[in-house]
Design a protein that fits this description.
By secondary structure, this protein is mainly alpha-helical. The chain is built from nine helices and two strands, in the order ααααββααααα. About 2% of the residues have low confidence.
């Protein structure tokens, strides 16, 4: 088997796996069909020497939905590692010493992904904010001129990957929709100059968003354990909890 035949066979097999309809495989065959061996090898050398070049796989909407499980199956078959522990030298005081560099506690998906800023700070397009005064009474979310201080899903994922759970507790607790915790935090800072998360109240009934969601679902006839476990947990479990509390 010639090198060209082997390369083409591997490419067609990959595209057959990525698109069972065969449309993309046919497109690649048409691309290579008009090439002489010299043109094909020149194309291959140029392609493999530039890591930014990739083949594209096109899909017809709703014809072959692409899911993470679908991608994982293809990657496993072709020996492509998707998950790995990531080193974070920017979080180390001595990045020149590999043994001191923090590593993500969980394996994360490693793919080519466009890097975006977590916050839009272009003053011509938006504005920065340091206040969380204006809030939606139902959800507790900051709104109006203070909406730029809210946390996004991307920021949440970033903090989870970096194992910054205490930061998440602060951003989604006293600095989010937990008003009693916020007032207690401000009081302690004014009095002592500092505060610890362990000193702040952390009660379900103080979470505005959770309360709103709970009562929306309750009004629709759906019982949940977001706030009240009595309607969701088995009686035996409740009795055991009461005995433990005594």
């Amino acid at each position: 088997m010639s090198t060209r035949t082997q390369l083409e066979s591997e490419i067609y097999e990959l595209f057959d796996d990525m698109d069972p309809s065969g449309r993309n495989t046919e497109r690649m065959k048409n691309l290579f069909k008009g090439m002489t061996d010299k043109q094909f090898y020149a194309f291959a050398i140029d392609f493999f020497s530039d890591e930014k070049k990739n083949f594209t796989c096109s899909y017809i909407p709703c014809d072959n939905p692409v899911t993470i499980e679908f991608i994982e199956k293809i990657a496993e078959k072709h020996g492509i590692p998707l998950y790995e522990h990531v080193f974070m030298p920017y979080m180390s005081d001595t990045p020149d010493k590999p043994e001191t560099i923090p590593v993500t506690p969980h394996k994360v998906m490693v793919l080519v992904y466009p890097v975006k800023r977590l916050k839009q700070m272009g003053f011509l397009k938006a504005h920065s904010g340091i206040s969380n005064t204006h809030r939606n009474a139902e959800t507790g979310q900051v709104s109006e001129v203070d909406k730029t201080t809210r946390e996004t899903d991307n920021e949440t994922y970033s903090l989870i990957v970096q194992n910054q759970y205490n930061t998440l507790r602060e951003l989604y607790g006293p600095r989010a929709d937990d008003m009693p915790a916020k007032y207690e935090m401000m009081r302690r800072i004014q009095r002592d100059g500092e505060v610890s998360l362990e000193d702040l109240p952390n009660r379900k009934e103080d979470k505005t968003t959770m309360n709103t969601m709970y009562y929306y679902l309750l009004s629709a006839g759906l019982a949940t354990n977001l706030m009240d476990e009595t309607g969701y947990v088995l009686p035996g479990t409740l009795r055991r909890k009461r005995n433990e509390e005594r």
